[in-house]
Amino acid sequence: MTLQSMTGFARHAVQDNHARIIWEIRSVNGKGLDARFRLPQGFEAVEPVARAALARHFSRGNFQAALTIERQAPKGAVALNDAYLANILEIAERLRSQYGLAPAAIDGILALRGVLVEPQEVEDEAAKAALDSAIMAALDGALLALGEARRAEGRSIGVILGHQIDTIAELAQRARNDPSRSVEAIRARLAAQVALLLDSTSGLDETRLHMEAAFLATKADIQEELDRLDTHVASARKLIGAGGPIGRKLDFLSQEFNREANTLCSKSNAASITAIGLELKAVVDQFREQVQNLE
């Protein structure tokens, strides 16, 4: 399965015998599945059906869906509402005589709502069913197009995440191979610390002091953190390889990566390890930002 971003846009139109149906759908990041619909008046019954269709295609994201129906003008002549027009003209003449207003222009009068009556086409049950079917066909097309747009971005995010995971693995290996972790370096550092304490303090048990120093060195060892980083790297690669809606799982792994990076920095007793830990934290932050976009 392919990774899928939660960000995308799609527009799909279908031509019915009497109208052109257009769906536009946008999606952005979201913790769950949330959809808002903007529908023409009289088409409110479309929402629950459309919401169920959207839930069949996607599991996460905030969606905004807009339906536009462009009806063809019905055939026939435009009629004049004589009674309404007579009333308008009477009012206009009264205003002219009382207040000295200029006579009303014919184009202004005709532009008034209700003066001209367009022919109405009676929509039977068959035509209504055909329109409903066309609306759902247009929606299915828009949802398929949106899914492809989200998958295309998901593939791009997958490439970025792969590079970031490789960087995390490389940093863990650098920390593992850092000269400060060699037996000789640790022995020299401990010897220097013990010598400093013995020179500056009297009455200390040298053997006990060596034992305490060795204990502190063991406590500061970062091998467990490096091993867990390797495990998390393997898990992340497996999840990305499997694909599907893995955003939440990768977000959890990003928290684990961050925890190990923080512990590595806190346990570090060498500037080189601290520098690697800080670089690791920066990459993990970038990793988590990308993960937030995945379904």
UniProtKB/TrEMBL annotation:
Transmembrane feature ranges: none
Domain of life: Bacteria
One MF annotation (Gene Ontology) recorded for this entry: RNA endonuclease activity
InterPro entries: YicC-like_C, YicC-like_N, YicC/YloC-like
Pfam families: YicC-like_C (PF08340), YicC-like_N (PF03755)
Keyword RNA-binding: no
Cofactor(s) required for function per UniProt: a divalent metal cation
Keyword Transmembrane in annotation: no
Ranges where the Endoribonuclease YicC-like C-terminal domain occurs: 180-295
Swiss-Prot/TrEMBL keywords: Endonuclease, Hydrolase, Nuclease
Residue intervals of the Endoribonuclease YicC-like N-terminal domain: 3-157
Family per similarity comment: Belongs to the YicC/YloC family.
Protein name, per record: Uncharacterized protein (TIGR00255 family)
Species the sequence originates in: Phyllobacterium leguminum
